[in-house]
């Protein structure tokens, strides 16, 4: 597939249209936790439900281009802002991926969704999707995750050593208080750093898109929560290793999805086979993209995702 590019002007115009095609509402899951989410339903027959979990430094906005394409193919799409991000609550704790997976489970219950869903997670969302598949396998038809070094795997520990400069933020975010102090007032610079460093199709991110993410993480408590997600990694590693030792590998149809131009692609297969039964594993690659699959090449992302999902109707 050729590189998917849009001009800045056409991208900005389409962004407004695409965002308007999904409803952005809030679910009050408890006295202390609300989860904001986008919910878009096809006008005709519904083939299934796809739940899309974003990464850092993003929100559900990252799926603004993919959601309409998926809905057009007959799928209901639900894209939450995970706890601490976007329009969701900014709690003091609860950033282990097991807890964040529980939030998604509670959201499905809140929405009275009882049928198994297709769960998709990118970056931090991939870690949450994996935790969900371990905890609630019967709620899934399939799970797709990638572009993340899953805590507890060999890839994760290599990223903290051999790739320490590239992944500096894994350690930086884990330091208490200092990152918040240094980033405050510089959220746009900090957010832009990640897109500039690990995107291949930089044209995918307009000034308005960067402004959106910077504003989201400039909210009171938002950056603290974003860093808290990383501060929980070592607990996540312990949790994942304990679950694998106790219950064995994931036995849910799984696709690990990487960008053609991403560094993570080289280690994706090894990583997923370390934690998932081989018979359940598919390997997906989105052409013309590095890390930010659904934004750098939304058409390629949707094509790869549906190619896998349609094997598990």
Automatic annotation (TrEMBL):
The keyword Signal applies. Coiled coil: none annotated. It comes from the Eukaryota. Residues 1-17 form the signal peptide. Keywords: Hydrolase, Signal. Residues 49-143 form the AB hydrolase-1 domain. GO terms for molecular function: hydrolase activity. Belongs to the AB hydrolase superfamily. Epoxide hydrolase family. This is AB hydrolase-1 domain-containing protein. It comes from Friedmanniomyces endolithicus.
